[in-house]
Structures are given as C-alpha cells and as structure tokens.
Amino acid sequence: MSQNQSTKIEGQVSLYDIARIRALLPHRYPFLLIDRVTALEIGKSVTALKNVTINEPFFNGHFPTQPVMPGVLIIEAMAQAAAVLAFESVPAKNPDEQRIVYLAGVDNARFKRPVVPGDQLILQITVDRIMRNIGKFSCTAKVDGQLVTEATLIAALQGN
To answer: CATH topology for 8-158?
Structure first.
C-alpha cells in the first residue's frame, strides 16, 4: 500500500494521509488544520490529529514570548475533522462538484489548558445526528490523553 492510500476494513477507515484530506477539504495553507485521520467510522465518528509546531504563522502574534494556539483554531481543526466525517458519511450527488461544510454553530465550548508548540492534538468527533445536510457533532481535543478543548459543533453541508 502506498502512503497516499487509505485502508478500508468493514466500514472503517484506518488512515487518511494529507493527500486524501486535501482531496476532501477545500482548505489550504495556512488554514488546513488537520494532518492525518487515524480512524473513521462512516456515519459515526472520526479521529484526526494536528501536529502543532512553532512554524505555525499564528504564533508570530499569539503570543511571541509565550506561544499559545488560539482556541478558535482548535475549534476550526475540530470543524475540519467533522467535515471529513460529513463528506464521507453523506454521499455526493454530483461527484464533480466541490462540496463545502460551513460551520453554523458552536455550543458549550470549553478550553481546559493551553495548546503549545510541540503538542499533538488528537481530535475526536462523534456524530450526534445528520439530517438534511445539517450535522451536529460532539467534539473533543486532547493532548497526551488530557482534555484541552470540548465543544458541540453544528455544520451545514453545501454543494450536495
């Protein structure tokens, strides 16, 4: 298996690399905020990761002497992982059309500790429901097994 392939086992996907993520999401540098999908169960859940490095452009201003990943970007990373799950769970009616998932709501967001360069965010997203191209997702972000952020996201799938 080449590095740009994903493995499907009985409805589960064990790995999406950056090439597969880029094929699904319209985001590009500096706003593509997930590096890999490590698990995906269609219609149910996804686990993705974001490697946080000092080379991220936002660290130049947030904060130069004590770099901290902005909470809104952690939420955005969660939303991108949820978008991968939504794209894979809701088949495209027109495969040639670019689909976009718009973030429509953020509820109950809590930030437990700062995320800093060198951390690896593990994003765990679970579908609460998807109806008529509107999805509700329960999301957590962890570093070294410790919860750093949690939120409920609502997203609208367009172009389907």
So the answer is: Thiol Ester Dehydrase; Chain A (3.10.129)
pTM for the whole structure? 0.91
20-45 confidence digits (pLDDT tens): 999 999 999 999 999 999 999 999 99
Ordered by start, the domain boundaries in the chain are 8-158
**Three-state DSSP string of the chain:** CCCCCCCEECCEECCECHHHHHHHCCCCCCCCCCCEEEEEECCCEEEEEEECCCCCHHHHCCCCCCCCCCHHHHHHHHHHHHHHHHHHHCCCCCCCCCCEEEEEEEEEEEECCCCCCCCEEEEEEEEEEEECCEEEEEEEEEECCEEEEEEEEEEEEECC
Q: Does residue 27 have an active-site annotation?
A: no
Instruction: Out of 20, 27, 62, 142, pick the active-site residue.
Output: 62
